[in-house]
Amino acid sequence: MKILVINGSPKGERSNTYRLTQAFLEGMGESGEALETRELEVGRLKLRPCLGCFSCWNKTPGQCCISDDMGLVIENLLWADVTVWSFPLYYFSVPGPLKNLIDRQLPMVLPFMEEDGGETGSGSHPARYDMSGKRTVVISTCGFYTAEGNYDGVKSLFDHLCGKGQYTALFCGQGELFRVAEVKRRTDEYLEFVRRAGREYLADGISAETRAGLNRLLFPQKIFESMADASWGVNRETGKRESDTLIFTRQMAALYQKESWPGHDLVLEMCYTDVKERYQIVLGREGSTVLTEGFRTADTTVSTPVTVWRAISEGKTSGSEALMKHQYRVEGDFELLITWDKYFAGAESGDDAGGGEQAAGTALHMPSKPTGFHILLLPWIVFWVAASVHPFWGSLISLAACVLVPLVFYRNQKTIYDVLSVGLVTGFSTALLLGAPSQLVIPLAYLAFGIMWTATCFCKIPLTAHYSMNDYDGEKALSNPLFLKTNRILTLAWGVLYLLTPIWTYFILGTGIGGWVGAINSVLPLLLGLFTAWFQKWYPAKVAKG
Ligand SMILES: Cc1cc2nc3c(=O)[nH]c(=O)nc-3n(C[C@H](O)[C@H](O)[C@H](O)COP(=O)(O)O)c2cc1C
Question: Which pTM does this prediction carry?
Answer without folding.
Answer: 0.72
